[in-house]
Amino acid sequence: MTPRWWPARGRHNSSDSAASGPGTAPGGAETPRSKELRSARWIVVVPVKPSARAKTRLDVDGVARADLARAIALDTLTAATACELVAQVVVVTDDAALARTAASIPALRFVPEGDARGLDAAVSAGVAAIDPHARMPRAALLGDLPALRPADLADALRAAASVPRGVVPDAEGTGSTLVTAGTGEPWASSFGDGSFARHVALGCVALPIPDASTLRRDVDTAAQLETAAALGLGPRTAALLGVRPSA
Predict the structure, then answer these.
(1) Is residue 108, in this structure, part of any structural domain at all?
(2) Could you read off the pLDDT of 87-99 as tens digits, one per residue?
(3) pTM of the model as a whole
(4) Coil, helix or strand at residue 48
């Protein structure tokens, strides 16, 4: 399948989706406590498979799959580090080439995947390496969100600040792109096919993130990449595909 790449960029007001925090005063005014929660700074863990074995279902004519997988991961990391509510982005990977290429992205910390196998084990390794005692709110973010905008991630983290555990479904509503745990909450996740229902069963609250949010458009197939392109791709993915990046 050869997607019809185009430079169109969907636009939406990401601030409209921010959820109200706890302790809202009568008339809609926030209390000091709710403002503190909504401005909390997060640790975000991003598991990334080595590019050579990533995105096995993503076939685009004329583009090497490994190069595309790496570009998508790098655009995701760039957006995450640019988010105003993110204190630290932790990348769990054994992809040495990704680490070298990401040297220009600020505020990244790399943790080797090592013996960890699977997304959940990799995320747990990243959480344990940076915040083993749950002193900060933590989130796991998938590394295949090439259209992700920092403001959309910030909206989700603000919403997550009001619940002990949260989850953002993917665009199809069956998977998960973001899982969160507040300060003091033990970490738990269950990524993979059908993960949204499992995360809800673990006690995660479905966060009120709109369908148009770039946080919900993960990419595993060429058709999903085409949809992400309509939202506006990050610069590395856009350059590889020969389209304009998002504004």
Answers:
(1) yes
(2) 999 999 999 999 9
(3) 0.83
(4) coil
